[in-house]
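Hey, resending since the last one bounced:
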Amino acid sequence: MGKNKLKIKWLLHAVIGFLVMGLGLSMIGDAVVVKMQGADFLDWFIYGTVSLAVFFAGLSFFGQAVVFKSLMTLSDKKNKVS
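The structure tokens again:
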């Protein structure tokens, strides 16, 4: 894979990962507020579970960005050795 392609994928995954993780954390906070307001168990439980899934999806995107960054670094080192 070309270096420019890796860089685009790295940037895209990193930005999406940060945005989705932030959304998930906001949703978790919102689920806590819903719970503290005395909502039914299923209301806050389902909302909290979905928010955790969103957060971990963002973490997964960010993890993939780290993989792309590592591939870019390895590609740079390989080119310098050659």
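Residues 73 and 79 are 10 Å apart (CA to CA).

Sorry for the duplicate.
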